[in-house]
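Q: What would this chain look like folded?
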Amino acid sequence: MTPEELSAMLVFTRVVDAGGFTAAAEELGISKSAVSKQIARLEDRLAVRLLNRTTRTLSLTEAGAAFYERCLEVAAAAQAAEATIQH
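A: My prediction, written as structure tokens:
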């Protein structure tokens, strides 16, 4: 896994947790278009739609829900690895 792929996974979890692209972008300190591009590239790479988007709502697809759970595990593992080094 490349650093860019890991970053896209973490951005994806932030979008889901924040409930949208704009809120995720604000939390991450990047533009909404940067968030959107990372999600689009992630979906292209996986060849699956992860999010259903409308102008007012954002929801996970079935594949997106399964992927989100795995991404949470990856994020937790990364945090644990960092904590191990810091202690």
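Helices lie at 3-18, 21-28, 32-46, 62-86.
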